[in-house]
Amino acid sequence: MLKRFNSEIADSSRTLRRSRVVVAVAVLAAVGSAGLPAEASTQKHVDWRSYVLAPSSPEVSPVSVEGRGDVSHAKSLVAGGKHGKKKLKVTTLTTVAGGAPASVLLDFGKDIAGTPHIDVTALEGSPTLSLATSEARRYIRTPASTTLSAAAVSGATQASVASTANLEVGNTVTFGTGTAAQTRTVTAFDATAKTVSFKPALTGDVPAQTATVSSPGAPSSDESRGLAGVGGIDTLQPAGTGRISASYHPGFRFVLLTLTSPGSISLSSAGVDFQGVRATPADYKGWFLSSDDQLNKMWYSGAYTLQLNLKPAGLNGLADKRIYDGAKRDRSIWTGDLLVQGPTAISTLGNEGASYVKSSIDVLLATQRADGAIPGSPDFRKGSNPAGSPLFYSNNYSGYGARAAMDYYRYTGDKDYITKILPALRAELAYNDRSLTANHLVASNDRDYWQASQTGEVTKYSIDYYILLKDMAWLERQAGSPALADEHDAKAESIKQAVNATLWNPQLGAYGQSSDHPDVLVEDANALALQYGFVPAERRASVLKALKTLWTPHGAIMGPGLVDPTGHTIEPFGNGMETAGRFTVNDADGAFDLMRRTWGQMVDKNDPLYTGAFWEFKNNDGGVNRATASLAHGWAASPTVQLTEQVLGVTPVNPGYASWSIKPHTGDLKWAQGLVPTKYGDIAVNWQSKAHDAKFTLHASTPRNTSGTIAVPVTSKSTVKINGRTVYTRGGCTAFKGTVSDGYAQFTVPGGTYDITVSRG
Fold it and tell me: What is the rounded distance in angstroms from the CA atom of residue 590 to the CA atom of residue 155?
């Protein structure tokens, strides 16, 4: 067999030499110029660089401005107060005592991070400005919500209220609800006397204790200083002309400037000094492009989300680099989020991204407990301490920390580092092993990622521990003890058998939530069961069907057993598990459908919550349920990972891509292409799927001194050629140790350049 394989390699090398010039031209067309091969699409103008979201300059100007109250020339603040080389008229805000406060709302079009500033050219009086930021427009102004402290009679133009907080002159105020409600315009209010004046007069009596609300008026902030340690509303008191800067704000699309005191102020410009990782196309080491514009936007939105989550060394008084979970909140390292963020960072930014992953793991392991537990977050709640404090949040999240470290090794091949931390990972595994029952299942009352415990022997926790054991077995074979690897594999297999024997529910057609709740359907456990090979082939259709009962137009709900106490219902983190599971069992159409439902809204610039980044969660109606919802949250970036690994098809097998797999899932796409950075060199892939002539072609350029497998979709009637040589025909493989499984023919090849055609027959 070895002699035959070596002969095939030699034959391949000769074929490669003959075809190298032709194929190199094809690969360069796909990679070097980022243009499409002529036959790939009519969209020859498409360039992946056009999807990159980071600001082109560290000095960021608003893309639109709105004024409220006495504001002149508000739009002059767009583009830094200039139109080409021509300076525009200055913007002037004027507030008079008892009048509506003047304000301007700056919209930067997408989330950014940094220090807002204004350039003052003139002022009168002693103006005081408030500066508030928000990811969503709806949360940057706060409505008043109070009650009448005394009855108001018909004809009154003033009423006593319990509080005047958030009232603004010029806004509407509504007394009562339903058909009895009376809405008026606020003309004045007195915070000391707790009265509000309005017009026109009331047309009916209003009893004491009547609910009273206003339209959004006073400046608000969606930031949580207790968690993030930064942000909140700034008060600016310019003493003269020149630039005045606010404090650092970590993630926002909107800035609201309000002149809260009598006087006037003139501004020549307003903008933000971007502080963070601003990745331009030159900084991208990997990229992705396909025939679907919406999916392309998702890939780059996930990449940008990750960049907004990166804290550069030195920022916020912390010397190290860190990957935070969200741009504005919690701004903490979270192990579960790293499972998505780590691969995203490395596949998009290469070595620079890897340095953030490694540094974050160092922070994690520095706070590991003596019993082996890794904190879910090593730096939670920064309100009183920029470094935060460790939160030992869940057993599952402890295991996620070890898996994130192993992912770092899988993608980078940094053996010195993984060897150094291997004892810590072994200690964590031993800690998690304490939750394994005599039935080979996990019972831990864990809180996991949705913040409420599950009782009994839990399906997802058991699968999570299986994954951890399999990852540790892989690691031990690469850098540790093969004997330990065998033990881990055996224990993992016993968990798989127990899950299938005990937790499968034929009535659900899926796995139940737990031994305590066998009749409850949950998304995450069944999604992971698909992804990690728990589901026998004959049960796959049943599980896929059951999962689809959880779908809404805006994504899949977590399931009736996973009700989050904060009220949201759709977790992109869990939906990412399901899309991965569907890809794994070759349900690419289902994966794309769910991906478009969940993330399509997030990349729609017309959506009121658009930030250019991915959101932490959603509700059934596609919205979010509170101001502090994170709208740039790294755990939602799974489309970036999966479009690279499942659609382009490139995944690491051995550390640093020393060996790799290329297996594209095409679904309804016509073509895809991209680049994946590795320790040994770039992997470039370009495939096309032509339904009209039942043909599939794939070009792959892989680094020398590596090896891997390439799998292409086939039927029993297909013919496959590699570099012109027939390697599959009549349902059987004839070269390169070819095998056939689940509709794919897979070939083992050395690193090099390959031109593969599939005539499907």
Answer: 62
Residues 6+ apart with CB under 8 A from 303: 52, 53, 279, 284, 344, 348, 637, 640
Task: Give yes or no for a contact between 672 and 664, defined as CB atoms under 8 angstroms apart.
Answer: yes
- Which is nearest to 699 in space by CA: 723, 678, 676? 723
Strand spans (E) along 126-279: 129-134, 141-142, 145-147, 158-160, 172-175, 182-190, 195-199, 211-214, 218-219, 234-236, 242-245, 249-259, 263-274
Q: What are the tens digits of pLDDT across the range 265-305?
A: 999 999 999 999 999 999 999 999 999 999 999 999 999 99
Rg (CA), the chain: 29
pLDDT band of residue 5 (cuts 50, 70, 90) is very low
- Answer yes or no: are the C-beta atoms of 756 and 746 closer than 8 Å: no
Beta bridge partners of 528: none
Prediction pTM value: 0.92
Round to whole Å and give the CA distance between 397 and 411.
21
Which residue carries 């497998």 as its tokens? 709
Distance CA 457, CA 503 (A): 9
Longest dimension (CA), the chain: 101
Q: Cis bond leading into 330, ω under 30°?
A: yes
- For tokens 């992912």, what's the residue? 407
**686 backbone φψ class: left, alpha, beta (φ>0; ψ -120 to 50):** beta
Pair of tokens at residue 35 = 């243009």
| Distance separating alpha carbons of residues 258 and 245, to the nearest angstrom | 15
SS3 470: helix
DSSP assignment letter at 502: I
Structure tokens at 235: 């008060």
Respond yes or no on whether the N-terminal peptide bond of residue 713 is cis (omega within 30° of 0).
no
Structure letter (DSSP) for residue 65: E
List the structure tokens of 172: 């509407």
Residue range 27-68, pLDDT digits in tens: 433 343 333 333 443 345 579 999 999 999 999 999 999 999
Q: Which residues contact 240 (CB under 8 A, 6 or more apart)?
A: 120, 123
SS3 20: helix
Judge contact between 481 and 448, C-beta under 8 A.
Answer: no
Helix (H, G, I), strand (E, B) or coil at 95: strand
Q: What is the DSSP string of 218-248?
A: EE-----HHHHSS-S-EEE---SSEEEE---
Buried b (16+ CB within 10 A) or exposed e, 72-90: ebbebbbbbbeeeeeebeb
369: left (phi over 0), alpha (psi -120 to 50) or beta: beta
- Taking only the tens place, the pLDDT of each residue in 147-171 is 999 999 999 999 999 999 888 888 8
CB 463 within 8 A of CB 498: no
Q: pLDDT of 475-493, one tens digit each? A: 999 999 999 999 999 999 9
Is residue 192 classed exposed, middle or buried when 0-12, 13-18 and 19+ CB atoms within 10 A define those classes? Answer: exposed
pLDDT band for position 2 (cuts 50, 70, 90): very low
